[in-house]
Amino acid sequence: MTIQTSEKLYAEALEHIVGGVNSPSRSYAAVGGGAAVFMKKGKGAYFWDEDGNRYIDYLAAYGPIITGFAHPHITEAIKKQAELGVLYGTPTTLETDLAVMLKKAIPSLDKVRFTNSGTESVMTTVRVARAFTGRKKLLKFAGSYHGHFDLVLVAAGSGPSTLGSPDSAGVTESTAQEVITVPFNNVDTLQHAFEKWGADIAGVLVEPIVGNFGMVMPQPGFLEAINEIAHQAGSVVIYDEVITNFRFMYGGAQNYLGVTPDLTAMGKVIGGGLPIGAYGGKKEIMDEVAPLGPAYQAGTMAGNPLSMASGIACLEVLQTPGIYERMDRLGKKLEDGMHAVNEKYHLPIAINRIGGAMTLYFSDHEITNYEEAKATDSKMFGRFFKYMLEKGVNLAPSKYEAWFLTTEHTEKDIDETLEAVDYAFSQLAKS
Ligand SMILES: Cc1ncc(COP(=O)(O)O)c(C=O)c1O
Ligand SMILES: N[C@H](C=O)CCC(=O)O
Known about the structure:
Layout: H1 4-16, E1 39-43, E2 46-49, E3 54-57, H2 72-84, H3 93-105, E4 111-115, H4 118-133, E5 137-141, H5 158-162, H6 173-176, E6 179-182, H7 187-197, E7 201-206, H8 222-232, E8 236-240, H9 253-257, E9 263-267, E10 277-281, H10 283-286, H11 305-318, H12 323-342, E11 349-354, E12 357-362, H13 370-374, H14 378-390, E13 393-394, E14 403-404, H15 411-430
Helix pairs in contact: 2-11, 3-11, 7-8, 12-15, 14-15
Residues 23, 25, 62-63, 145, 158-159, 212, 243, 401 line the site of the ligand N[C@H](C=O)CCC(=O)O.
Family: Belongs to the class-III pyridoxal-phosphate-dependent aminotransferase family. HemL subfamily.
Cofactor: pyridoxal 5'-phosphate
EC number: 5.4.3.8
């Protein structure tokens, strides 16, 4: 496989775009460097690069593309809406329709608001929690990623950790002091933090199933303990479901796990691949938001008709019976297949999988928190990534990101992926 055109295009992009990419996670800095592959078109579970190479894709654009590329139902909805105008700056029925769909699927949402990104959604939930409680501090978990606003770029996973800057430059000391960071899956530390700062904590922000130091499940009772401890102290519990909404079932991780937050931030899948974010929750808290209340949040593009139409179409596809069971079955085939391949090579691997989302870590330990994820073998992952790419399988260029199956992956794709894994593992086992 040659990627000469990508190399040329990447060199050109470097001249004009910072780092050649519009989101740092897309660079190959953490996987040995080199030109990021330029994609030209996608269909179903595949995309093709500018040199004409075909890849089986598990990046799914970092999560939104759960129905595969250019899904006919979503494409049709986008085309139809584009012909009617892409932005009006007035309410539309599409916004109410999508809000109703979200509310029906996720019962903790009394009211919702649309934004343009997951970042905006999470940022606003924190503001609203502060407005509701009259408190300042936010408690979050080490290695989780909640977007790129200042308050959460402290001990941030995903891209910031991948590129070695979990505490971003440019975040002021006073902002960083408003954040308390504790390890995921550790009730004692959470309890201690509340004993010390409980009266100042406006909210606890948590990915109910982590997706940003790989996929990590909460241990039994952990989310329940968060609710109990936070509510006892009068703090708001905020779930960041930007990755997890509609990922494992038609609903959120909160439905999947049977736990209920006060506020939820959403994004990715609910826009069917177009820019979107949303947040919602208990009526008495959401009524803090302008124009009803004093907490301001706005957006010229918020609730834009194209994203709404695309999101509605995506959720319609996800209502197809058996669709999540199929992703789970294929995910299991991939997980089991990797372990079976590794019986030949005995590499230190650990796989965390929930339904169609999984992470392969190079580690001989189970991964339950950020420190453990950080300690996994980055160099080995970097080499694995490149071998897989060489064999036509595209993953995120970071050991902290998830692999996402889509509704379009097939048994044959999994078999082909496992052949690539066999090749990659055989190379890794040589040195
Ligand atoms: C859990 C989580 N929250 C928030 C965000 C930010 O979303 P966006 O990139 O749409 O701003 C992301 C991903 O980027 C995420 O994974
Ligand atoms: N893991 C991040 C979000 O889920 C990756 C998105 C990005 O940084 O571009």
